[in-house]
Amino acid sequence: MRKISLFFLLYLFFLPALGEEVAGGDSAGQFARHDVNLQILSGNNQSIRAGRVPAQVPVIFVTDHNNRPLVNEPVYISRISPRSETGELSAIRFFTDTAGKAYIDLEPINEPGDYEYLVYGETTDREQPAILKITIRKSNWVFLLVIGLFGGLSFFILGMTLMSEGMQNSAGNRMRGFLGRLTSNRFIALSIGALVTIVIQSSSATNVMLISFVNSKLMRFKQTIGVILGAAIGTTITAQIIAFKLTDYALLFVALGFMVQILSRKLHWKEIGKAILGFGILFFGMHIMSESMAPLRSYDPFIDMILRLQNPVLGIVVGALLTALIQSSSAFIGILIILSMQGLLTLGAAIPLLIGANIGTAITAVLASLNGSREAKQVALAHTLIKIIGAAIIVFLIPSFIRLMAYITPEGVQAGVSDMNMIAQPRQIANAHTLYNIALCLLFLPITNSYARLIRYLLPLKHEGEVPFTLRYINEGLLKTPVVAIDSAREELARMMKKVYHMTEKIIAPFIDKKSHVFREIEESEREINFLRDEIKDFLIKVSQGDISKDTTEEAFIMMNAVREFEQIADTLSTQLLNKAKSWCNSQYQFSDKGKEELLTYHRQTLTLMVNAIKLVEHFDLRSAIRLKEKYDHYREEFFELERQHYDRLKGNIEHSLESSKTHLEIITLLRVISSHAINTIRILIYKTNHHKSRKR
């Protein structure tokens, strides 16, 4: 400012020698000396398309020291930025009318940019001359703004996705189990909810996991409330990171993450590099959006729209709708922070918008619960109602909340600016987001039991039996977090395998005791197995089509194989063995006591192999897989021994042996087929694990 004042004084001193252009007449300098005051009434900070005249003619109001309008008073205007190519300063002179107003007629400008003009009178004692600012835009600036905004938003969301995936994969594939085991205490639940959300970078994904847990009876609804509150706090960390103005270093993070990915041989470090790369792309997207939004600073319709959003109800509704559309509160709040970086957002508009964003993020959980159990719907209702109650409370406290944020983060405070019209700063928005969710936590955490009772009252459970053919663990919402999705698929697969195990367990009863009541159960189980087979396969294919690690791809392949092997076991049970059981129950034949003992022995061994195969798929334990494969060789030898003993009894003409011989041998053969399918599940685990290790070496 001192430079401008010095320049102004030098200009007045050398005014006669500058050879200025004068509009409407004689050279300047022949007026009586008196002090004048200048005021720009209109036309300041406006934007004009290149080659066009201003929509608002700049008007300068000139008064004397008694604030009386001066008539026919000269007013000079000189462009000071950007400077002319020659560096010379030229001035244009205008005169005031009878009302003391001078109308500045500027020539059209073809070059886009921000232009500043020095405005002054014939004589003045003001230290700071008036500055007229005009922005010249390109003729296609709207198109460039739109593509810049959407392109930058695409980079922003891509970066967030890469960062999330990298953090998830580097943290390991057990977040789901970690979350499920540590939610009995409300404070532990709060901490775990926040931690898991920080890692997966999505409170929506955390809430979808909770719905999956409750739907599969792994958790009770009451346990989820603390996790919901923790997830809301965890998601604010993303906003805090974004609020750091790191856009200048975005490409540095992109380069660093790319180098780590390319040079690292270990998968763990590759995923860390992916997270760093995503971090850089996120900020690069912010930079593109910020640059593209710059013209809006002088676009009056946009400024008017922002001012209308200071209406709390309107702001909350708009924030909720836009967040529901984007399906990410972090992305929407990131956009608010970008607007604040350009000085386009007032704090009075930012607060309602971020409150609305907290409501809009609940839509993902609501959609995930639609096909779930009644208790799963209670989780979605609890999450949504927390956000709505919080918004209903704070809507009356927004002015006080704004003053609190200005006090906590005073960087946006400006003299003469009201609290509502205060230009929002990035850190203020991030802090408001965090403080709001912490306040919700402090409000609801002490009353989780009472709140759970309220939700049960609003949405009571229906005492109905389990609906057949439903999924407990997997749903489309989990596909956004592949490592969680693959764990969910494994649990659904284990559930299917256990159903096949129970079918195998029941099939022996008709042959031993001629109990026919199990036939209907086995046929019903077969239909459910076919349903689960199709759903699990489709889900695993969708997971594999995403951007997943090689380890996750191998797990998906092993699970697809297990689905196939155990579905073939179910087919063997429901067709061949079941048909033989029906025929056996309608016959007059009986197995000898020795024959029954042999059948029960081999049946138990088959069940043992199946149990161990299920455990291996659940935990991917290679050592146990190798041990069981060796044990299968022992089972196969025992089969031949049982067959030899059976022929020995035939030689001895033991009672019932001749009549039941064919069925006896067929049962043992089919049980051996079932055992071979179980051991195939183990073999593929050993092969894929060893192949993956050798490939790493």
What does this structure look like?
This protein is of the alpha+beta class and 697 residues long. It has three domains: 2-138, Immunoglobulin-like (Sandwich), CATH 2.60.40.1930; 142-458, no CATH class; 482-696, Methane Monooxygenase Hydroxylase, Chain G, domain 1, CATH 1.20.58.220. Helix content is 65%, strand content 7%. It contains 25 helices and eight strands. It has helices spanning 2-13, 141-171, 175-181, 186-200, 203-215, 221-234, 236-243, 250-263, 267-293, 300-308, 312-326, 329-341, 347-360, 363-369, 374-394, 398-408, 426-444, 448-458, 482-507, 509-513, 518-545, 550-585, 593-619, 622-651, 657-696, and strands at residues 37-42, 46-49, 59-63, 74-81, 91-95, 101-103, 113-121, 130-137. α12 runs antiparallel to α13. It is elongated, with a radius of gyration of 38 Å.
List key phrases describing it.
elongated; alpha+beta; 697 residues; three-stranded antiparallel beta sheet; 3 domains; disordered N terminus; disordered C terminus; Methane Monooxygenase Hydroxylase, Chain G, domain 1; Immunoglobulin-like; five-stranded mixed beta sheet
In terms of quaternary structure, the protein is single chain
- Global mean pLDDT: 77
Structural class: alpha+beta
In DSSP terms (H or I, runs of 4 or more residues), the helix count works out at 25
The gross shape turns out to be elongated
In short:
It is built from 25 helices and eight strands. Helix content is about 65%, strand content about 5%. Helix 4 crosses helix 6.
